[in-house]
Amino acid sequence: MRIISGTLRGAQLPLLPNAQLRPTAERVREALFSILGSAVCGVAVLDLFAGTGSLGFEALSRGAKSVTLVEKEVRLAKKLVEFCDDMQLSDDVTILNTDAARAVNFLAKREIRFGLILLDPPYDSDWISMLFSSDSFLGLSLSGGLIVVERTKFNQKIEGSGKIKLEKTFSRKYGSSILEIFESTKSQD
Question: pTM to 2 decimals?
Fold first, then answer.
């Protein structure tokens, strides 16, 4: 598994033997970042289910200002730290070794906002519907910020909360994966 384009092109991403990961396929990553284009440049990025960090590091490689990776698996989080040290990325990457709910609370309390949020949770989980019903999660996105979701058709419907509205700007199926992009806007309450 490698970074496919940008300043870190060709760098081998950290892998953990026997980890139950489902990294985003290269063709899906290539399609995603082709669609996002310059929307990645200069923004803070949150990769909430980092795994190997493939989405977050790809965003950094393509011009993101900074990346926050959230990974609850301790051994994998250590591999991400080692990768950042080896690639001299420690100034641009923050790694939070916790689960998504705790990370959202931590970031929301500190009023940290992102121009791009990447969600690729385990396919058999309810994380997407739980997060999208949370004002704390949706509030992490800047107004006009993008939220990217990789899911299967089996996940629940995605809707915004009362305070934050979402507009689906892209949806396409790639094999068993569905890639969707939402733009967030604050409601006029």
Answer: 0.92
